[in-house]
Amino acid sequence: MHPIIFKFGPVTIYSYGLMVAIAFIFGIYFAKLEAIRKNIKVDLIYDFIFYLIIASLIGARLYYVLFFNPAGFREDPAAIFKIWQGGLSIHGALLGGILVALLFSKFRKISFWRLADITAPSIILGQAIGRFGCFLNGCCFGTPTKLFFGVRFPKGSLPHLTYGDQLIHPAQLYESIFNIMGFILLWLLRKKIKFDGGLFLLYLIIYSIIRLIVSEFRGDNPYLWDTHIKIAQVVSMGMIIIAGILFFRRKSKCIKG
Predict the structure, then answer these.
(1) What are the respective helix, strand and coil percentages of the chain, to the nearest 5?
(2) What are the sequence ranges of the domains in the chain?
(3) Which helix or strand (DSSP H or E) is residue 21 part of?
């Protein structure tokens, strides 16, 4: 665990914030490659990504505040703005990103589905890098395990406050690895899926399956009311169903058209 990369006087570089920044840089690069391939002006994609970054960060933070630690943020409201220290939810980021994409596509008169396809590989690659930042930061931690590759986090960290000196699953690294695999798959399939929206909907299905699995090993996911069902798993199941229906509907429409 290395939440701080280095400090130089008043300047502090946090590992989580650094990984998020790197994720956006790689995401922009691959989105640019896809825009060029699809003959879409790169400047338009840059404009879209600018708004996408803002909306996804706001959505990710609001979702985290509402579902993960509302009491903590009520005690220290200023902490809401300290996103470089961790505390972003991918489900909130997706909701914020989809909303701004719908608005951007309407005002700039470009297909929402084409925009979504261009950014799909970038999103899951960014998640892979971001989860590594979670590991360095000590957030999004796992549950206890007796496996030899279990990890111990230092005293004072949230995982240690929750589970003490027990070995816990490196759930952040599980998801990071799965997300890299998802990126490779989407990158290989991007030329084979011939209908707009197909790649993005496939991303939603792939990531939701990943999150469904990894959430089993997460020790920080909130539960749905008084059940043993995690909210992230409910959201993931819903995304799989909705994205699956839309995928086959759009595929069928493409075949008929």
Answers:
(1) 70, 5, 25
(2) 4-192
(3) helix 15-37
